[in-house]
Design a protein that fits this description.
It contains three helices and no strands. By secondary structure, it is an all-alpha fold. α2 packs across α3. The protein is flat.
Length: 75
């Protein structure tokens, strides 16, 4: 019933999707460490690690690996 009313259970996320995207982009840019980002965004270090891991999973899930046949002569 709660889900039908739009009320989800559990704790609300500390970071919105947009803010989490900025955090991950700053981490990948190499300008900030995990600790610096945690202080900057007012979250724990574990939250930053989870955001980076989620982003990596999403990136690998959307990437498509295509194996093309070899065109060179093998023998």
């Amino acid at each position: 019933m709660a889900k039908a009313k739009g009320k989800l259970r559990g704790k609300k996320p500390k970071l919105t999707a947009a803010v989490e995207g900025h955090l991950v982009a700053e981490f990948r840019g190499g300008d900030y460490s995990i600790n610096e980002l945690a202080r900057r965004y007012g979250v724990g270090v574990a939250t930053v690690y989870r955001a980076v891991e989620r982003s990596a999973k999403n990136d690998s899930a959307t990437a498509v690996a295509v194996a093309l046949p070899r065109t060179d002569a093998l023998g």
